[in-house]
Amino acid sequence: MTDLPEWSRAFAGEGPGRSRGLPLPGERRDWAWGGATGAGVRVAVIDSGVDAAHPAVGRLAGSVAVEADPEAEEGYRVVDGAGEDLYGHGTACAGIIRSLAPDVELHSVRVLGRNLKGRSVAFHGGIRWAVEHGMDVVNMSLSSQNEDWFAAFHEVADEAYFAGTLLVCAASNTPGATFPSQFASVVSVAALPAYEADTLVYNTAPPVEFGARGLDVEVAWTAGGTIRASGNSFATPHVAGLAARILSKHPGLTPFQVKAVLHAVAGNSD
Amino acid sequence: MHPPDGRQAALVAALGDALGTATAPDGLGEEVRAAVAGIREVFGAAACSVALVEPDGSALRFIAADGRGAAEIVGVVLPVGRGIAGWVAMSGESIRVADVAADGRFARDVAESTRFVPSTILAAPVPGPRGAVAGVVEVLEPAPDDTGSGRELAVLGLLAAQLGSVVRLRALYDALGTGLLRSLVDPDGDGDFDDALATLVDAEEATSLGDLARAFRDLAAAGPDAARLAERVLLEVADFARRGHRGPGRPRAPR
């Protein structure tokens, strides 16, 4: 086995090494999010829907479903109020975000349906919806390897970046480029062994930039229950939740500023 | 003999594609079966299976398995909206679920029909052409990951990618065979080879014959008599295509 994916190589063995973070005032983590609850921050979960009634989620500020529609001008339509979680995965991500930032305003953007057709167009449409509706943080525990959509994902990721919407994306476990997780305009995340929910490691060999807790995590799932699961999918909402806390304490930070703060508070930053 | 017109050429070429679909699973199945046996061994698992996405994207069909419940799971078709495999196909992300029983959408009925209900599942997407998800590989009841490193998902992702190469290669051979057949029956066609392939992808006949071919494939799996029946019907269809709707030809001699 000589060709492990970037993220696996980066966090294995001796780890990614150390790098120099911004000299934030005082204790860095306290400056970054000390006392913050996520209040005033709008977070979208682009996924399979979110079960608002799940105890780990508590409530949703809104939910929409983005569905492929060849007749529509943009190739998709947005259905208001459709939030049912088709798999349990979106509820898992929302529960993790809520546990770290209990007072965020959570929105469910369902882009995964019951059919693989139109997956990319709905995913892309979901990101666009989040940008147009002023979300501060977007959790995307999914990715695309469809090269036909490279430019479209790149464009909407740039739009988010300039509009002040932070996209937090799961890296893929498979070799090859995945979108939008490999773009510099987003925060890309992979799972690493950790027991603490606020563990954060910066990868000095991107494109995957951050490692967070994502292995053997108890997460919310269907029917109000929980499961123990592992995957980059579950590391991502940990970073999204921390980002929401940063923005809660420091409203108006741009995506590149939030990324710099995440880097500064990473466990391997000097 | 008059050269066939474009529609006839497309129909014959689509038939070639259908024949490829009808016969491909045996060849592909052998390769994939060997792969899943190896993957099961790597993870010290009770079972390993591979399901491919059906052409319309609505379901996953298990084409190969090794270990407990293998014989029962092969051939099973699950809606892509169900359970862990469906999630992986939809999201393109790998996942490890440690207590499957707690997943309300876990396809328990299917697991029970194989007489093996696992508690832990690893699952990763099998990459298809142009970034699409071609299928899902699942490892059931893997040996405990004592290192807790999470590398098992990375390793499974890599193996799934290799499996994806096998699947894509097979699809490529099918496409090349179709294109070759089209070139043979329509040597003076005004389109080039790539155009011919692109046309076939969109041909309605290809879709319907693909469905037909899958039905034949299932018939063939039912035993030699059913296989002979499937072959006979396919030959009749080929004869119909060759005559190009120019009225009834000479009756075929019984085989």
UniProtKB/TrEMBL annotation, chain B:
<dbReference type="InterPro" id="IPR003018">
    <property type="entry name" value="GAF"/>
</dbReference>
<dbReference type="InterPro" id="IPR029016">
    <property type="entry name" value="GAF-like_dom_sf"/>
</dbReference>
<protein>
    <submittedName>
        <fullName>GAF domain-containing protein</fullName>
    </submittedName>
</protein>
<dbReference type="Pfam" id="PF01590">
    <property type="entry name" value="GAF"/>
</dbReference>
<feature type="domain" description="GAF">
    <location>
        <begin position="27"/>
        <end position="177"/>
    </location>
</feature>
